Amino acid sequence: MTKLPNALRSGVFFFAFALFMSAKAFALAQQPLLCYNSFMPYISGGVIMTDKKKELIRTLKFVLFSISAGVIQVISFTLMEEVWHLTHWLSYLVALILSVVWNFTLNRKFTFYSANNVPIAMLKVAAFYLAFTPLSTWWTAVLTGDGFLWNEYLVLILTMLINFVTEYLYDRFIVFGKSIDTAKKTENNEKATEVQI
Distance between CA 86 and CA 27 in Å, rounded? Predict the structure, then answer.
């Protein structure tokens, strides 16, 4: 039996880990005891949704916004890598920052409906990326370097998968955990006040 090359074995492990973490993230989001206000039904457009359905919709929104952020990251990365010929780590870093700002803005407003303090939420996200960015920049440099010679786009996609899973868990439970759906409550209170006036 032939032995797989180290780079291929590492890639298979990396991809399997990303898939496992994606499944784990979805399972955690479905647990009602971990959800803020998990025993309250969610009312949307006159339709009462269960917590499971609400979390599924929240997860799907996060996936769609993350895909749009991924498109921004890939396009900006490709421009910097192929057109402007910047070094790989710099192209990755700038593309990552652009996608993070896009993703945070959309997910705060439309996925988590959070009315919490924006600077504090941004600091929490910055703390996540203070850990994630050096690690991902390091493994990107190692995997695309002379030792492994992985394709830059393969490493970028695998890194984006790991970023997706870990950021969802971090945003869901740490950044927006107790402020989920507070913007909707605030908006509904303002509408009720306007009607009374």
Answer: 39
